[in-house]
Amino acid sequence: MSAPFLALPRHSSLTARFAASPAQIAALAFVALFLIAFLVVPIVRVIFVAFADRDGGFTLVNFRDFLATGLLREAFWNSIYVAAMTVLLASLIAVPLATILARFQFKGAALIHTLGVIPLVMPPFVGAVAMQLIYGRNGAINLLLNDWLGFRIPFMEGLNGVIFVEALHYFPFILLNLSAALANIDSAMEESAQNLGAHGFTLFRRIVFPLALPGYVAGAALVFVKVFDDLATPLLLNVTAMLAPQAYLKITSVGITDPMGYVISVIMILCSLGAMALSALALRGRDFATQQRGGGGLARRTLGRSGNAIAAIFIVLVLLVVLSPHIGIFLLSIGTVWSFAVLPDGYTLAHYATVVREALPLISNTVLYCGLAGLIDIVLGATLAYIVLRTRLPGRKLIEQVAMSAVAMPGLVLGIGLLRTYYDVKLPFSGESLATFWFMLVIAYAVRRLPYALSAATAALQQLHVSLEEAAESLGARKFTTLLRIVVPLMTGGLLAGFVTSFATAAVELSATLLLVTHAPDAPLAYGIYVYMQSAAGRGPGAALGVIAVVVVAIATYLAYRVAEHERGLKSRGVF
Amino acid sequence: MGEERGVTIEHVSFGYGATAVLDDISLDVAKGEFFAFLGPSGSGKTTLLRLIAGFGTPASGRILIGERDVTSLPPWDRNVGMVFQNYALWPHMTVAKNVAFGLERRKLARAEIARKVSDVLDLVDLAPFAERRPAQLSGGQQQRVALARTLVIEPAVLLLDEPLSNLDARLRVEMRSELRRLQRKLGITAIYVTHDQEEANAVADRIAVLDQGRIQQIGAPLDLYDRPANRFVATFLGTANLIEGAIDGDGHFVAGGFVLPGVGGESGSACMSVRPQDVVVGQPGNGIDAEVAEREFLGGHTRYRMQAGEQTIFADVPHRRGAEPHAVGTAVGLMIDAKQVSVLR
Lengths: 576, 345
What we know:
The complex is a heterodimer of chains A (576) and B (345).
Chain A lengths: L14 H5 L2 H29 L10 H8 L1 H34 L5 H9 L6 H12 L4 H10 L9 H26 L2 H9 L4 H30 L2 H5 L6 H12 L4 H25 L21 H30 L15 H9 L1 H31 L5 H10 L5 H12 L15 H25 L3 H9 L4 H29 L3 H6 L8 H10 L4 H34 L4
Chain B lengths: L4 E12 L2 E12 L3 E5 L6 H9 L6 E6 L2 E2 L10 E4 L11 H11 L4 H14 L15 H13 L5 E5 L7 H18 L2 E6 L2 H7 L2 E6 L2 E6 L1 H6 L4 H6 L4 E7 L5 E3 L2 E3 L7 E7 L4 E4 L5 E10 L3 E8 L2 E8 L12 E6 L5 E3 L1
Parallel strand pairs in B: 3-8, 3-9, 6-7, 7-8
Antiparallel strand pairs in B: 1-2, 1-4, 4-5, 9-10, 11-12, 11-14, 12-13, 14-20, 15-19, 16-17, 16-19, 17-18
Helix pairs in contact in B: 2-3, 2-4, 3-4
């Protein structure tokens, strides 16, 4: 009885009027056009070029060239190896942390959760520089090791460095997803298994592990895709024998017409989609989160004194390692010279002064670009979420899937696609190419981050009972008034969360940025840090910029979190 | 109820694809009448209410409010007030803002809105809570805000979708007489959807009993109880003994094991319905011979399950202090007054 029926009988001719107003059709068409122009066409263009011969005919010769080139074959296996090993290393950090936090009574659990997420707010390549100073051949740790024990550990040599940096940056994806899955497990699930005689490892293997697996797999797939796509970290660590750097180098040094960049792009898309498809396959029919409500997580146990000590030592060690890039960047930003030494030789604020003198446009560019991208995302995300959940327009599901597919599209590939598609489109008046116009960066960020905003908007709208809108309509409010007065205000928390996620992740994006920035004055913060970090003298100011970026993003995230909490409090107090 | 028309439903059908939810529904609600749709879940009662409110369009048939055909009007043009099961109060607005919303849509002057809001909040005893948020109110108070928000627009008809189902038992009884009082005072046409027969009996002038998308019977609560039209109505409103049998040429009801004279009606196979409290338990040898199979003490009365040959008959005996109940296994005689029997076909 209580099933809300938006569904209208198919055989009634009058229903079309209610189901699809011209405004709704126009809104969906607008979202679709945006996605076609800036996601579908560029990606299809990339794929098309990869399979085209000189005259535009179909050919596989480019792929044969790819396979025949030793460097590219090596790059392919290196990329797979790095992504897989990163998932492994990230799991070694995240799984014990999540388990300890979910299972045991622990002082400061909230603090650990927060510290565990911090790595995400700094671009991985920024941390890479600091990590070379700490873990590199002549970094702090190896200097100490060499002095005391007479050997060095090659943490940062070649691919090891990329894996290490990426794992420290991306392990929170696994931590967050796994923690959420563990928190969703109803303790009654565990208790009823115990009641039926299961305990110890059996309990874990039969109940806890299967219920937590979907969260882990989702996180691991995300890490794989992100690492595969990351361009700046290998470049900064001078590792070029990977797919992303190869594609970038082909496009930027050989030229936009060289087909090999496109071939690599297609292979990157395939690997990305493959990882996503594998995880979807592994999760099919296992979406337990929706079947158990309330949850509350596993029954917490208290640790004995020695258990407590071991857990505490483990956590402190892990956090020290995890936060070392941040500590390193901070030291670098206030250090005078830091080379062949455990710590900087002296301390200064000069780098911050340099940044204020030279780099303020970088900051304002980032705020402008990412702010606009976030804004575009919540408008498009909220519109699409509303149409998907509240109308029966044909094609809405397909467009939602297209929007969500941006998650699996490497930023580098999107950048190449946008460049290729819009390079020859000239702007009126200035005659500048549309592809290198600064607004193209905004669009690239918006397309890439739309899935986050869309998910946030969908979640927010799902929590809104349809009757809240129906009540307004029956009191005389038309669809648009209802949207403005009821739906949008009640979605504010979710939309803001979507905005901040889009903003924060766009602020640290560099893959598409490296391709699309052509004029230094148009460059955003992440690009600026990258350029600074290229030279030894620029490292101090680069680190100072990095610290500023972390602080800006952290504040924004915290504010959004507070607003979202406030909203939730408002809604949960007994209205439904 | 032939006077002024409140709501008229003419041959309304509705469904999803091939599944019929409502099948050829016709009924009239008089102006100022308190009407109830009563039925189990899945009977289509809420769907019918929502069609009146404009949330969905019938596949066929017409809906009139007063003399106006509203079948294809959107909800916002119908001037229908709907109170939702979950109240649907907007959590981001104060009580006063919630109540003022409908008046603002009607472009009333600010002073008039303020006056009407304060009047209606007085009416539901919520004047001191005007500046609170819905989350700061109790369930009963939220319910009254939902009512005030709907009444303030002076709707042509008030629709109530299981409005009391989220309240605790005591509050529910209180609120339903309050609802009844308000409806009388305002003289508004009201339609009330519920699955609770007691609630429907208590508030409604007339009830339409729905099952499987069809109207089973329409009538005043007493009519439905005393003269159910079919087996469904007989058992859905209260408890009934349904005994399959036939009426012979002399007007006797004949079932396996007993004959009840004086029932009357056309001869042929029939079903007899009698309420448990209308079965009088006496000494063996009187009426139908039976044996006590089971008994349940329910406070005001004791319910016996009697076995009369192959028939199972329930009998309710009022309890008085000190009265000795019949023991299980005792032989008894069951007397049924033919005037208390409904014949169902």
